[in-house]
Write a structure and sequence with these properties.
- Pfam families: DUF5996.
- This is Ava_C0101 and related proteins.
- It comes from Actinacidiphila bryophytorum.
- There is one protein chain.
- Helix content is 29%, strand content 20%.
- It has 323 residues and is an alpha+beta fold.
- It is globular, with a radius of gyration of 20 Å.
């Protein structure tokens, strides 16, 4: 894509500041909240390729599981995080509903109240493994986590607003490719938001690769996304990677100059730090240009077909010259 300008109404402040250290404790609590609900989503939804059934999607007030639960004499249901009113809301297809505040709760309290809400609505769904996934306390049950209980409503609302803006930006990036493309979705595993393009060529994962990773990367992919920072990259950043990584990828240039290739677990990830994007004259266009440069680096080295590219989301070649 060509780094087109932001949508009408966007300003250089389209990406508000949210340093990791300003909300780290809240982020750690919220991450576990969404893992609780994410694991219910995993248990209550039919499996789709590359685990597309599992992540959250953005709403006008927060994030949602989308409707789930096979209707076998019972209700389908949906769980929403409302990051404006700061409540968890569980609704059924028949119109029944229950909710509770997100503030003032430990992870143990949140887990108890979520399970209680499901029971109250006669919903037969629960996490099959009620423990954090790939977090430092992965051996502690949610029901016993009284440590994580910070919840700053202003920081959580800022997190949701950033997610919403990045969601729109990733939708614009996704429009430039007509091949197999994932939804734009928010992962409760790594607490990032991403969209992934696929070549449809099968891959051969290294021996010993776990089943989750094997399914996620069973085809060649080039992914683009954003996360809020963690112990590996302790600041918010936009990212892109190609998997499997072709030789020489990290030798190719990225745009803008502030972007870089960063070693991550034996491969390389293209990084554009959030604050560098915010400081650009056109933050929106700068991030789109970054994603495009990282995509082209991976696509050229892996030999992806250029015919799958469709600038502006237009696949009809007779309409393209009008753009």
């Amino acid at each position: 894509m060509d780094g087109s300008p932001a949508p009408d109404g966007a300003t250089p402040d389209v990406f508000p500041a949210l340093p990791l250290e300003a909300w780290r404790d809240t982020k750690e609590t919220l991450h576990r909240f969404v893992q609780v609900v994410g694991k219910i989503r995993l248990a209550g939804s039919p499996r789709r390729n590359h685990w597309w059934n599992v992540p959250f999607h953005l709403t006008g007030q927060g994030i949602t599981t989308r409707p789930m639960g096979l209707v076998r004499g019972g209700d389908a249901f949906c769980i929403d995080f409302d990051f404006v009113a700061h409540r968890l809301v569980v609704r059924t297809l028949s119109g029944r509903e229950t909710s509770f505040p997100l503030t003032g709760r430990s992870v143990a309290d949140f887990y108890r109240d979520t399970v209680t809400a499901l029971v109250a609505l006669d919903i037969d769904a629960a996490p099959e493994h009620p423990y954090p996934y790939d977090l430092p306390d992965a051996r502690r049950p949610f029901a016993e986590d009284h440590e994580h209980r910070s919840y700053d409503p202003a920081a959580v609302t800022a997190y949701w607003r950033i997610l919403s803006q990045v969601n729109l930006l990733l939708e614009q990036h996704a429009a430039g490719y007509s091949g197999k493309t994932s939804p734009v979705h928010h992962f409760w595993h790594t607490f990032d938001i991403a969209v992934t393009r696929f070549s449809e060529r099968e891959t051969t994962p290294p021996p010993g690769t776990d089943p989750v990773t094997r399914e996620a990367y069973s085809r060649e992919v080039i992914s683009a996304g954003f996360w809020f920072g963690d112990d590996t990259v302790p600041a918010p950043a936009f990212y892109s990677y190609t998997a499997p990584e072709p030789p020489g990828l990290a030798d190719l240039p990225l745009r803008p100059e502030a972007a870089r290739w960063s070693p991550v677990r034996g491969s390389h990830m293209a990084l554009l730090m959030y604050d560098d994007a915010r400081a650009a004259a056109d933050p929106w266009g700068t991030v789109l240009d970054f994603f495009d440069s990282a995509y082209r680096a991976g696509a050229e080295l892996t030999g992806w077909e250029r015919r799958r590219e469709c600038p502006g989301g237009i696949t009809d070649p007779q309409l393209r010259p009008a753009q």
